[in-house]
Amino acid sequence: MRTPADAAPAHQANVPWRRLAFFVVAAQCLALTLLGYMLLNKHRSLLDELMLSRIEIEASDLETALRTGAMSGLQPGEMFRLEAMVQHLKAADPAIAAIAVLSVEAHTARIVFADDPGQLGKTLPADEWQSTSAHGFTRHDADAGPQIEVAVRDAAGVVIGGLRVRAAGAPLAAASQAMANSLWYTIAAAVGALTVLTLAALARLRAAGSGAALHRRIVVLALSSTLAASAFVAWQADRLFGEQLKPAVTAKVQGIANLLANKLEYAAALEIPLDKLPGVTDYFAGIIARHPEVAALRLSDATGGVLAEHGAARGRWITRAVGNAQVAAATDERFVARRLGELAADVGIVLLVSGLIFRELLAALLHRLPRSGGVPTLSALQSLRLPLFLFILSEEMSRSFLPLYLQSFTSGSSFLGQEAEVGLPITAYMLCFALATPFAGRWTDRWGIARVFAAGVGLALAGFAWTALATAYWQLLPARALCACGYAACTIACQRQLIALTGPAERARGLALFVGAVGIAAICGSALGGVLAEQFGFRLVFALSALLTLLALAAFHSARVPTMAPGDAGPLLGLAEVRRLFADRRFTFLMLGGAVPAKIALAGYLFYLTPLALHQLAYSPAAIGRAVMLYFVLVAAVNPLASWLADHFGWRLALTVGGGLLIGLGGLAGVAGWLPGEAAVWTGIAALGIGTGLAAAPMQALASEIGARAGATSVAVVLRTVERLGSVIGPLWAGAWLISGDWRGAMAAIGVAVLAGTLLCLGVREEGAR
User: Fold this and answer.
1) Cβ neighbours of residue 507 closer than 8 Å, sequence gap 6 or more
2) Alpha-carbon distance 513 to 383, whole Å?
3) Using H for helix, E for strand and C for coil, what is the string for 249-264?
4) Alpha helices, DSSP H, located in 602-711
5) HSE-up (13 A, CA, CB side) for residue 365
6) Alpha-carbon distance 649 to 658, whole Å?
7) Contact between 500 and 380 (Cβ < 8 Å)
8) Would 22 be classed as within a structural domain?
């Protein structure tokens, strides 16, 4: 007869410890590798920024001469002194690879001056210069290297010319390679130490008790050790970044000192006494405001007397002689510390993304280990989370750069215009997603979940591959349509599985797995996709998305989940079922008052209005990304608690109404005069995230309860289709208010729409609340 003591070793024998150790170490290496690529991407972007801003300073004299001639009625080709200025600028800075001055006519832009005589006379499309900023340099990443350009207008406001300066890629590549060598060495050392510690800890855990305690210990071990190693790598990266940023900052301040010296020498050549120059202090103040690397500027005479000064010196002075006088610029030693502080926020985001991806992989691996005393239904649901996460991640990978990729195929020459051309594939995606959702539910009921999921993977795989290999704009339309149909099929199949495996008491918690997987994939996908696109290009990311769909299919088939047979949900979805659902006043009120307004707020405020508002508030793209990510983090944090409350206390309607009220009040923050603009935007994001986390899963569970007679799949399909309607309305609603007002008014209009819908939800009555 076996005793409980004998049972533990038998259980331990069933645990595949070697395979467990292999996958844990592999996942840890993946997390650290991801962190390394993100840190290197941040390092390269900072170097690009410092180099291009320094080149902007050096090219400012050339830009000023071009503008002065244009306002005097001269064409760029008639400004002959520009030729010498171009050659002087090229010789002054080896970091400049090419300079071109262009004359823009109706349909073409022709190079009239260049450092390379072979470029003279070459023509370019004039359309791109019509949209180029005429109020300062804009920056672009070209294949040959980063570049800056500015358009020049005449007195009538017509673009007549432009200036383009391209930075040399070799110095940036050398600096990036040096950083990569140092950082990968650090990561390799961290991986080695982490592997030894992990294997030693797993060896100790092998003798531990079975069941949930063993699983918790493995999770804590893997996550804590990986986060500790990631923190060590990030700390070392801070030190390495500081070593390379300080010389770049010094070089830029030297460029500013040279610029000021040249301007003062020009004034001296005109026999204007330096002590009689008007507005020097104000000019210094403007320089410091535009270039925070400079702490102070000072102009002094031959005796050392100060003629003009602004700022307080916090670093060493860089001086340049101007006749008998001198101009000095002081570096701000705290600038590097501030930029490293900004980097700390980015590194924190990187660690969060690494931890979330690792958590999903580890949870799926540990799910395969034997459990004692677990809940079979919830265990089966957990096994479905990884394939759902991987598939949604494949779509979210391109979220941050898809408009840029589409723009590279547009010319703006069609009757639609460039902006409409960029938006058309996105509109096609949303439309096909909405139209395919009802059919996906019908296919799920007829052919079964496994077949529909496989078909969806096939459609998405074809769409991503076609997008990656596209050579013309028209190819993007059917490619995105395929991705939309595949996304609809796979998400409905997974959602159908979740609903079919849960009873009323577990419905909200099961649906929380769906909402949670979507949120975590959204958090990870945008950050990871942007880094990979920066490192390897847009097309490789789409190819990786195609690979992720295959991994999702493999994870789906390997998950030990009881597959529901066709027809398990009841009758097939058709117009009769849809009419039956909307014939119930409670269901109609819930859809129009809960589902539609929630998506209006998500698409209209978060995806459309928030980036525009924060851009007006001088937020960088990285900062805007962190703001949008806050929404997904809050949803992921609040959603499990709301699901538990809905399941245990039956508060489905209360949580749905409470979430809607919170979202609506957050929108009204836009017209709160006592709130600064920045605080209003963040308040709206936080309210949207918490409100959605409170309402999403309980609302879906309530809809399934109300429409139980029509079948779980019918309810899920109708809900997703109605939500797509809200996603289409949201940007249109916000855009309509932006035309006649500002983003604050549009934000408030969204809040009013959500509050009105929430009042409509009060007409819903729950049955069977405990």
Assistant:
1) 499, 647, 701, 704, 705
2) 10
3) HHHHHHHHHHHHHHHH
4) 610-616, 621-649, 652-668, 677-706
5) 23
6) 15
7) no
8) no
Number of domains in the chain: 4
Which of 84, 76, 81, 144 shows the shortest CA–CA distance to 110? 76
Which residue in this structure is represented by tokens 């990631």?
230
Check: CB of residue 713 under 8 Å from CB of residue 499: yes
Residues 453 and 496 in one domain: yes
pLDDT given at position 763: 74
Looking up tokens 């409470």, which residue turns up?
A: 658
CA 173/CA 185 separation, integer angstroms: 18
H helices present in 502-620, as ranges: 507-536, 538-558, 575-583, 585-590, 596-601, 610-616
Last residue of a domain, one of 145, 170, 195: 170
Domain containing residue 645: 570-770
Q: Considering the entire predicted model, what is its pTM?
A: 0.68
Task: Examine the domain organization and report whether 520 and 578 are in the same domain.
Answer: no
653 — phi, psi (to 5°)? -70, -40
Per the domain annotation, does 649 fall within a domain? yes
Cα 700 versus chain centre, distance: 27
pLDDT of residue 646: 81
490, 441: one domain: yes
Query: What tokens does 54 get?
Result: 């320094």
Distance CA 373, CA 379 (A): 11
Q: Choose among 335, 50, 43: nearest CA to 175.
A: 43
d(CA 263, CA 267): 6
Q: What angle do CA 495, 438, 583 make, to 5 degrees?
A: 100
Do 329 and 392 lie in a common domain? no
Neighbours of 254 (CB within 10 A): 16
Residues 556 and 580 in one domain: no
Looking at residue 636, which CATH number applies to its domain?
A: 1.20.1250.20
Interatomic CA distance for residues 393 and 546, integer angstroms: 11
Report, as ranges of residue numbers, the positions in the chain whose pLDDT lies below 50.
Answer: 1-13, 371-376, 568-571, 766-770
Q: Is 567 left (phi over 0), alpha (psi -120 to 50) or beta?
A: left
Q: Under a CB-based contact definition with an 8 Å cutoff, are residues 525 and 548 in contact?
A: no
Specify the amino acid at residue 300: S
Q: Using an 8 Å Cβ cutoff, are 748 and 680 in contact?
A: no
- Is 34 a member of any domain? no
Q: Are 271 and 330 in contact (CB under 8 A)?
A: no
Q: Answer for the pair 490, 451: CB distance below 8 angstroms, yes or no.
A: no
What's the pLDDT score for residue 565? 52
pLDDT in the model for residue 416: 61
Residue 39: inside a domain: no
Query: What is the separation of C-alpha 364 from the centre of its chain, rounded to a whole number of angstroms?
Result: 26
Cα angle 264-266-267, degrees, rounded to a multiple of 5: 65
